[in-house]
Amino acid sequence: MVSFFCFYSTIIKAQTTTILDSQFEQVLINLGLDNVIDGGVLTANIDTLTVLDLEQIFVAINITDLTGIQDFTALVYLTISPLVNVLDVTQNIFLEYLSCNSSYLLTLEVTILILWM
C-alpha cells in the first residue's frame, strides 16, 4: 500500500501602502488605522476612508509628505497640513472637497473627470 500526502500552503501577504512621513503615520495610528510607525499601513485599513481632515489634528500640523494618499481611494473630503509641498490626488477619483491652506504647496496633481449628461 502506497500513501501520498499532499501539503498545500498558501502564504497571504497583505498589501501595504508606503507612508514616508512619520507624522502622517502617527495620525493614522491616532485614527486607529495603523498600530506602529514602520513606514507603512495596511491598504485595507485606508482604502474605504472617506474623510481625512489633517488641518484639525494637532500632530498633523508638521506633515510635509503625503506619500501614500493615492491609496485612500474612497476619499471624498480631504484637508491637508500647511507644510505639504507636493500633493498628488490623481488616484483619488471620488474626491469632491480639497482644502490646502498652504503657502508651501508647490505641486498639485489632479485629474478632472467631466461627465456629460
3D structure, described in words:
It is a single chain. With 117 residues, the protein is α/β, with parallel strands linked by helices. The chain has one domain. Helix content is 11%, strand content 18%. The chain is built from 2 helices and 7 strands; from the N terminus they run βαβαβββββ. Strands 3-4-6 form a 3-stranded parallel β-sheet, with no helix packed on it. A two-stranded antiparallel ribbon has the order 1-2. The chain has a two-stranded parallel sheet with strand order 5-7. The mean pLDDT is 84.
Question: Any descriptors?
Answer:
117 residues, alpha/beta, globular
Which secondary structure elements does this structure contain, and how are they paired or packed?
Elements: E1 16-18, H1 22-30, E2 40-42, H2 43-46, E3 51-53, E4 77-79, E5 86-88, E6 97-99, E7 107-109
Parallel strand pairs: 3-4, 4-6, 5-7
Antiparallel strand pairs: 1-2
Q: What is the distance, rounded to the nearest whole angstrom, between the alpha carbons of the first and last residues?
A: 72 Å
User: Percentage of helical residues?
Assistant: 10-25%
Strand order of the largest sheet: 3-4-6
Structural class: alpha/beta
State the assembly state of the protein chains: single chain
The SSE string, one letter per element, is: EHEHEEEEE
* Percent of sequence in beta strands: 15-25%
Count of all domains? 1
Strand count, sense and barrel status of the largest sheet are:
3 strands, parallel
Gross geometry: globular
Radius of gyration (CA) equals 19 Å
Mean pLDDT: 84
Tally the beta strands: 7
| Separate helix tally | 2
Low-confidence stretches are: none
